[in-house]
Design brief:
NAD(P)-bd_dom_sf; alpha/beta; 9 helices; 9-stranded mixed sheet; 2 domains; Dihydrodipicolinate Reductase, domain 2; Rossmann fold
Protein backbone atom coordinates (compact mmCIF):
# COMPACT_ATOMS: atom_id res chain seq x y z
CA UNK A 1 0.00 0.00 0.00
CA UNK A 2 1.20 3.52 -0.76
CA UNK A 3 0.37 4.75 2.74
CA UNK A 4 1.92 1.84 4.66
CA UNK A 5 3.39 3.55 7.73
CA UNK A 6 6.12 0.93 8.04
CA UNK A 7 7.54 2.52 4.91
CA UNK A 8 6.30 6.08 5.43
CA UNK A 9 6.44 6.77 9.18
CA UNK A 10 5.60 10.49 9.13
CA UNK A 11 1.83 10.37 9.52
CA UNK A 12 1.75 13.86 11.05
CA UNK A 13 3.78 17.03 10.73
CA UNK A 14 5.23 18.59 7.58
CA UNK A 15 5.33 16.47 4.44
CA UNK A 16 8.89 15.22 3.96
CA UNK A 17 10.40 14.89 0.50
CA UNK A 18 13.72 14.67 -1.26
CA UNK A 19 14.71 15.63 -4.79
CA UNK A 20 16.85 13.78 -7.31
CA UNK A 21 18.48 16.29 -9.64
CA UNK A 22 19.52 19.88 -9.07
CA UNK A 23 18.25 21.84 -12.05
CA UNK A 24 15.88 24.76 -12.49
CA UNK A 25 12.76 23.06 -11.10
CA UNK A 26 14.59 21.80 -8.00
CA UNK A 27 15.04 25.39 -6.89
CA UNK A 28 11.26 25.82 -6.93
CA UNK A 29 10.67 22.74 -4.76
CA UNK A 30 13.25 23.90 -2.22
CA UNK A 31 11.89 27.47 -2.25
CA UNK A 32 8.32 26.32 -1.62
CA UNK A 33 9.43 24.22 1.34
CA UNK A 34 11.29 27.23 2.76
CA UNK A 35 8.20 29.44 2.44
CA UNK A 36 5.85 26.82 3.90
CA UNK A 37 7.81 25.16 6.72
CA UNK A 38 4.62 24.07 8.48
CA UNK A 39 3.62 22.10 5.37
CA UNK A 40 6.87 20.80 3.89
CA UNK A 41 10.37 19.71 4.83
CA UNK A 42 12.92 19.25 2.05
CA UNK A 43 15.13 16.50 3.46
CA UNK A 44 17.76 17.06 0.80
CA UNK A 45 18.89 16.73 -2.79
CA UNK A 46 20.66 13.89 -4.59
CA UNK A 47 22.96 15.08 -7.36
CA UNK A 48 25.74 13.62 -9.52
CA UNK A 49 28.93 15.26 -8.30
CA UNK A 50 30.50 16.27 -5.00
CA UNK A 51 31.14 19.74 -6.38
CA UNK A 52 27.46 20.25 -7.14
CA UNK A 53 26.53 18.81 -3.73
CA UNK A 54 28.74 21.44 -2.09
CA UNK A 55 27.02 24.18 -4.11
CA UNK A 56 23.57 22.94 -3.07
CA UNK A 57 24.50 22.90 0.59
CA UNK A 58 25.90 26.42 0.38
CA UNK A 59 23.20 27.99 -1.82
CA UNK A 60 20.04 26.19 -0.70
CA UNK A 61 20.99 25.21 2.85
CA UNK A 62 19.71 21.63 2.49
CA UNK A 63 21.64 18.34 2.76
CA UNK A 64 23.09 17.08 -0.52
CA UNK A 65 24.24 13.60 -1.50
CA UNK A 66 25.67 11.83 -4.51
CA UNK A 67 24.27 8.41 -3.53
CA UNK A 68 20.52 7.75 -3.38
CA UNK A 69 20.81 4.78 -1.04
CA UNK A 70 22.75 6.78 1.54
CA UNK A 71 20.22 9.60 1.35
CA UNK A 72 17.25 7.26 1.90
CA UNK A 73 18.96 5.54 4.83
CA UNK A 74 19.48 8.85 6.59
CA UNK A 75 16.29 10.66 5.57
CA UNK A 76 12.98 8.75 5.66
CA UNK A 77 10.70 10.60 3.24
CA UNK A 78 7.07 10.49 2.20
CA UNK A 79 8.08 10.65 -1.45
CA UNK A 80 10.91 11.58 -3.80
CA UNK A 81 10.71 14.15 -6.58
CA UNK A 82 12.60 13.44 -9.80
CA UNK A 83 13.90 16.66 -11.33
CA UNK A 84 16.08 15.05 -13.95
CA UNK A 85 16.67 15.22 -17.72
CA UNK A 86 14.02 13.38 -19.70
CA UNK A 87 16.65 10.94 -21.02
CA UNK A 88 17.21 9.50 -17.53
CA UNK A 89 13.87 10.15 -15.82
CA UNK A 90 12.35 6.70 -16.62
CA UNK A 91 15.36 4.92 -15.10
CA UNK A 92 15.26 7.12 -12.01
CA UNK A 93 11.54 6.44 -11.56
CA UNK A 94 12.09 2.69 -11.96
CA UNK A 95 14.93 2.75 -9.42
CA UNK A 96 12.74 4.48 -6.83
CA UNK A 97 9.78 2.18 -7.45
CA UNK A 98 12.13 -0.79 -7.08
CA UNK A 99 12.93 0.56 -3.61
CA UNK A 100 9.17 0.95 -2.93
CA UNK A 101 9.51 4.73 -2.65
CA UNK A 102 6.56 6.84 -3.89
CA UNK A 103 7.52 9.18 -6.72
CA UNK A 104 6.49 12.63 -7.91
CA UNK A 105 8.10 12.69 -11.35
CA UNK A 106 9.11 15.63 -13.50
CA UNK A 107 7.13 16.31 -16.68
CA UNK A 108 7.07 14.60 -19.09
CA UNK A 109 7.75 11.13 -17.66
CA UNK A 110 9.34 9.83 -20.89
CA UNK A 111 10.51 11.27 -24.20
CA UNK A 112 8.67 9.18 -26.83
CA UNK A 113 5.85 6.69 -27.23
CA UNK A 114 8.04 3.60 -26.90
CA UNK A 115 9.64 5.01 -23.75
CA UNK A 116 6.19 5.74 -22.32
CA UNK A 117 5.08 2.17 -23.00
CA UNK A 118 8.26 0.76 -21.51
CA UNK A 119 7.94 2.92 -18.40
CA UNK A 120 4.32 1.91 -17.93
CA UNK A 121 5.22 -1.76 -18.34
CA UNK A 122 7.90 -1.38 -15.66
CA UNK A 123 6.14 0.75 -13.02
CA UNK A 124 2.54 1.29 -14.09
CA UNK A 125 1.18 -1.49 -11.93
CA UNK A 126 2.99 -0.28 -8.81
CA UNK A 127 0.60 2.56 -8.04
CA UNK A 128 3.59 4.52 -6.76
CA UNK A 129 4.03 7.22 -9.41
CA UNK A 130 2.48 10.68 -9.68
CA UNK A 131 3.66 13.40 -12.07
CA UNK A 132 4.26 17.07 -11.25
CA UNK A 133 1.88 18.53 -13.84
CA UNK A 134 1.06 21.78 -12.07
CA UNK A 135 -1.00 23.79 -14.54
CA UNK A 136 -4.42 22.23 -13.82
CA UNK A 137 -3.82 23.34 -10.21
CA UNK A 138 -2.93 26.95 -11.04
CA UNK A 139 -5.44 29.26 -9.33
CA UNK A 140 -7.04 30.61 -12.51
CA UNK A 141 -7.36 27.18 -14.10
CA UNK A 142 -8.71 25.62 -10.92
CA UNK A 143 -11.31 28.41 -10.71
CA UNK A 144 -12.34 27.86 -14.33
CA UNK A 145 -12.71 24.13 -13.75
CA UNK A 146 -14.83 24.81 -10.65
CA UNK A 147 -17.05 27.09 -12.72
CA UNK A 148 -17.45 24.44 -15.42
CA UNK A 149 -18.46 21.94 -12.74
CA UNK A 150 -21.55 24.08 -12.07
CA UNK A 151 -22.71 23.31 -15.66
CA UNK A 152 -23.06 27.03 -16.36
CA UNK A 153 -21.87 26.47 -19.95
CA UNK A 154 -24.04 23.42 -20.51
CA UNK A 155 -22.24 20.57 -22.23
CA UNK A 156 -18.66 21.64 -22.97
CA UNK A 157 -17.66 21.00 -26.58
CA UNK A 158 -14.64 23.20 -27.34
CA UNK A 159 -11.52 24.44 -25.56
CA UNK A 160 -8.61 26.56 -26.73
CA UNK A 161 -5.31 26.98 -24.89
CA UNK A 162 -2.64 29.47 -25.90
CA UNK A 163 -0.41 29.90 -22.88
CA UNK A 164 1.91 26.96 -22.34
CA UNK A 165 3.26 24.24 -24.57
CA UNK A 166 3.08 20.58 -25.50
CA UNK A 167 2.04 18.21 -22.70
CA UNK A 168 1.27 21.13 -20.33
CA UNK A 169 -1.24 22.58 -22.79
CA UNK A 170 -2.70 19.14 -23.49
CA UNK A 171 -3.23 18.67 -19.75
CA UNK A 172 -5.26 21.89 -19.67
CA UNK A 173 -7.26 21.00 -22.76
CA UNK A 174 -8.12 17.61 -21.31
CA UNK A 175 -9.03 19.22 -17.98
CA UNK A 176 -11.39 21.77 -19.51
CA UNK A 177 -12.98 19.31 -21.95
CA UNK A 178 -13.33 16.52 -19.40
CA UNK A 179 -11.30 14.17 -21.59
CA UNK A 180 -9.82 10.97 -20.20
CA UNK A 181 -8.17 8.49 -22.54
CA UNK A 182 -10.40 8.83 -25.60
CA UNK A 183 -8.69 8.50 -29.01
CA UNK A 184 -7.81 11.78 -30.71
CA UNK A 185 -7.30 12.80 -34.32
CA UNK A 186 -4.58 15.44 -34.40
CA UNK A 187 -3.90 17.89 -37.21
CA UNK A 188 -1.08 20.41 -36.76
CA UNK A 189 1.00 22.97 -38.62
CA UNK A 190 3.91 25.21 -37.69
CA UNK A 191 4.47 28.74 -38.99
CA UNK A 192 7.64 30.82 -38.65
CA UNK A 193 6.79 34.44 -37.88
CA UNK A 194 8.74 37.49 -36.64
CA UNK A 195 8.34 38.83 -33.09
CA UNK A 196 10.39 40.68 -30.50
CA UNK A 197 11.64 38.46 -27.69
CA UNK A 198 12.25 40.79 -24.73
CA UNK A 199 12.48 38.23 -21.92
CA UNK A 200 13.80 34.69 -21.43
CA UNK A 201 14.48 32.46 -18.44
CA UNK A 202 17.76 34.38 -18.06
CA UNK A 203 15.87 37.67 -17.58
CA UNK A 204 15.14 40.83 -19.56
CA UNK A 205 17.06 41.41 -22.80
CA UNK A 206 18.62 44.75 -23.69
CA UNK A 207 18.39 44.00 -27.41
CA UNK A 208 14.84 44.25 -28.79
CA UNK A 209 15.77 42.77 -32.15
CA UNK A 210 12.94 41.08 -34.03
CA UNK A 211 13.56 37.34 -34.35
CA UNK A 212 11.81 34.46 -36.07
CA UNK A 213 9.78 32.24 -33.76
CA UNK A 214 7.73 29.15 -34.53
CA UNK A 215 4.00 29.14 -33.89
CA UNK A 216 2.35 25.72 -33.76
CA UNK A 217 -1.41 25.38 -34.18
CA UNK A 218 -3.17 22.04 -33.78
CA UNK A 219 -6.70 20.70 -33.56
CA UNK A 220 -7.37 17.73 -31.29
CA UNK A 221 -10.58 16.03 -32.39
CA UNK A 222 -12.02 13.75 -29.69
CA UNK A 223 -15.24 13.12 -31.58
CA UNK A 224 -17.81 15.04 -29.56
CA UNK A 225 -15.28 17.56 -28.21
CA UNK A 226 -12.48 19.55 -29.84
CA UNK A 227 -9.34 21.15 -28.45
CA UNK A 228 -7.30 23.88 -30.14
CA UNK A 229 -3.58 24.14 -29.32
CA UNK A 230 -1.79 27.41 -30.16
CA UNK A 231 1.71 28.20 -28.95
CA UNK A 232 4.54 30.50 -30.04
CA UNK A 233 8.07 29.66 -28.90
CA UNK A 234 8.88 31.45 -25.61
CA UNK A 235 5.29 32.71 -25.38
CA UNK A 236 5.18 31.87 -21.68
CA UNK A 237 7.80 34.58 -21.01
CA UNK A 238 6.94 37.05 -23.77
CA UNK A 239 4.88 40.00 -22.47
CA UNK A 240 3.73 40.94 -25.98
CA UNK A 241 2.08 37.54 -26.47
CA UNK A 242 -0.95 37.26 -24.21
CA UNK A 243 -2.17 34.02 -22.69
CA UNK A 244 -5.62 32.89 -23.82
CA UNK A 245 -8.06 30.23 -22.74
CA UNK A 246 -11.46 29.72 -24.33
CA UNK A 247 -14.06 27.17 -23.25
CA UNK A 248 -17.33 26.83 -25.16
CA UNK A 249 -20.43 24.90 -24.23
CA UNK A 250 -23.97 24.52 -25.48
CA UNK A 251 -25.23 27.39 -23.29
CA UNK A 252 -22.28 29.72 -22.92
CA UNK A 253 -18.65 30.64 -23.39
CA UNK A 254 -15.75 31.46 -21.08
CA UNK A 255 -13.03 33.60 -22.67
CA UNK A 256 -10.15 33.90 -20.23
CA UNK A 257 -12.03 35.27 -17.19
CA UNK A 258 -15.11 36.64 -19.00
CA UNK A 259 -18.27 34.52 -18.92
CA UNK A 260 -21.17 34.84 -21.35
CA UNK A 261 -24.12 32.54 -20.71
CA UNK A 262 -27.78 32.08 -21.50
CA UNK A 263 -29.72 32.09 -18.23
CA UNK A 264 -33.08 31.59 -19.94
CA UNK A 265 -35.15 32.70 -22.95
CA UNK A 266 -34.14 36.21 -24.02
CA UNK A 267 -31.67 36.34 -21.10
CA UNK A 268 -27.99 36.41 -22.06
CA UNK A 269 -25.83 37.41 -19.09
CA UNK A 270 -22.20 38.40 -18.71
CA UNK A 271 -19.91 38.28 -15.68
CA UNK A 272 -16.23 38.04 -14.84
CA UNK A 273 -13.98 35.92 -12.69
CA UNK A 274 -12.16 38.32 -10.41
CA UNK A 275 -9.13 37.90 -8.21
CA UNK A 276 -9.23 39.34 -4.71
CA UNK A 277 -5.69 40.38 -3.88
CA UNK A 278 -4.30 41.91 -0.74
CA UNK A 279 -1.55 44.50 -0.50
CA UNK A 280 -2.95 46.94 -3.04
CA UNK A 281 -3.59 50.64 -2.38
CA UNK A 282 -4.59 51.28 1.28
CA UNK A 283 -4.59 47.56 2.04
CA UNK A 284 -1.90 47.00 4.65
CA UNK A 285 -1.60 43.24 4.17
CA UNK A 286 1.30 41.74 2.22
CA UNK A 287 0.75 41.33 -1.54
CA UNK A 288 -0.96 37.98 -2.06
CA UNK A 289 -3.81 36.22 -3.83
CA UNK A 290 -6.73 35.54 -1.48
CA UNK A 291 -9.46 34.11 -3.69
CA UNK A 292 -11.11 34.03 -7.13
CA UNK A 293 -14.87 34.42 -7.52
CA UNK A 294 -17.48 35.22 -10.15
CA UNK A 295 -19.52 37.73 -8.14
CA UNK A 296 -21.93 35.09 -6.89
CA UNK A 297 -19.63 32.45 -5.43
CA UNK A 298 -16.03 31.74 -4.47
CA UNK A 299 -14.51 29.41 -7.05
CA UNK A 300 -10.99 29.19 -5.63
CA UNK A 301 -9.31 30.13 -2.36
CA UNK A 302 -5.54 30.22 -2.02
CA UNK A 303 -4.54 27.39 0.35
CA UNK A 304 -1.23 29.15 1.04
CA UNK A 305 -2.54 32.64 1.69
CA UNK A 306 -0.01 34.54 3.76
CA UNK A 307 3.04 32.89 2.19
CA UNK A 308 3.01 35.38 -0.72
CA UNK A 309 3.76 32.74 -3.35
CA UNK A 310 3.57 33.29 -7.09
CA UNK A 311 0.65 31.54 -8.76
CA UNK A 312 3.16 29.16 -10.35
CA UNK A 313 4.47 28.19 -6.91
CA UNK A 314 0.92 27.86 -5.57
CA UNK A 315 0.25 25.33 -8.33
CA UNK A 316 3.47 23.39 -7.72
CA UNK A 317 2.89 23.46 -3.96
CA UNK A 318 -0.61 22.08 -4.47
CA UNK A 319 0.73 19.10 -6.43
CA UNK A 320 3.36 18.48 -3.75
CA UNK A 321 0.88 18.68 -0.89
CA UNK A 322 -1.67 16.45 -2.60
CA UNK A 323 1.07 13.93 -3.27
CA UNK A 324 1.87 13.94 0.43
CA UNK A 325 -1.77 13.33 1.37
CA UNK A 326 -2.01 10.60 -1.26
CA UNK A 327 0.95 8.85 0.35
CA UNK A 328 -0.04 9.38 3.97
CA UNK A 329 -3.82 9.27 3.91
CA UNK A 330 -4.69 7.30 0.77
CA UNK A 331 -6.24 10.50 -0.61
CA UNK A 332 -7.07 11.02 -4.27
CA UNK A 333 -3.93 10.92 -6.46
CA UNK A 334 -3.09 14.41 -7.74
CA UNK A 335 -1.84 13.50 -11.24
CA UNK A 336 -1.27 9.80 -11.95
CA UNK A 337 1.36 8.53 -14.36
CA UNK A 338 -1.39 7.38 -16.73
CA UNK A 339 -2.71 10.94 -17.12
CA UNK A 340 0.75 12.38 -17.74
CA UNK A 341 1.50 9.62 -20.25
CA UNK A 342 -1.69 10.51 -22.12
CA UNK A 343 -0.70 14.20 -22.19
CA UNK A 344 2.68 13.31 -23.66
CA UNK A 345 1.14 10.87 -26.15
CA UNK A 346 -1.03 13.64 -27.60
CA UNK A 347 1.81 16.17 -27.51
CA UNK A 348 3.96 13.74 -29.49
CA UNK A 349 1.10 13.33 -31.97
CA UNK A 350 1.09 17.11 -32.49
CA UNK A 351 4.82 17.01 -33.27
CA UNK A 352 4.36 14.04 -35.60
CA UNK A 353 1.56 15.79 -37.47
CA UNK A 354 3.78 18.84 -37.94
CA UNK A 355 6.62 16.64 -39.18
CA UNK A 356 4.56 14.62 -41.66
CA UNK A 357 1.96 17.18 -42.68
CA UNK A 358 -0.76 14.58 -42.10
CA UNK A 359 -3.36 13.76 -39.48
CA UNK A 360 -2.19 11.53 -36.65
CA UNK A 361 -4.56 9.38 -34.62
CA UNK A 362 -3.89 8.23 -31.08
CA UNK A 363 -5.34 4.93 -29.95
CA UNK A 364 -5.86 3.34 -26.53
CA UNK A 365 -2.53 2.65 -24.85
CA UNK A 366 -1.82 0.21 -21.99
CA UNK A 367 -2.18 2.94 -19.35
CA UNK A 368 -5.76 3.61 -20.55
CA UNK A 369 -6.96 0.12 -19.67
Amino acid sequence: MVNDLTTHPHKHGPIRFGVIGSGYRTGAFVRIAERLPDRFTCEGVVTRTEARADEILENWQVPAYTDLGTFLERHPVDFMITSTPISVTPDVIADLVGREVPVLAETPPAKDVESLRSLWSTVGGSGLVQVAEQYPFAPGNAARRALLDTDVLGRVTWAEVSSTQWYHAVALLRQMLGIGFEPATVSARTFTLPVVDPQTRAGWAEDLKVVDRSTTVATLDFGDRVGLYDYTDNQVRNPVRANRMVVRGTHGELVDDHLTRLAGPKTPLESDLRRLRTGEYLDFEAPDLYQIGDGAQVLYRNPYYGACLSEEDIAVGTVMERTGHWVRDNAEPPYPLASAAQDQLIALAIKESVRTGTEVRTDAEPWAR
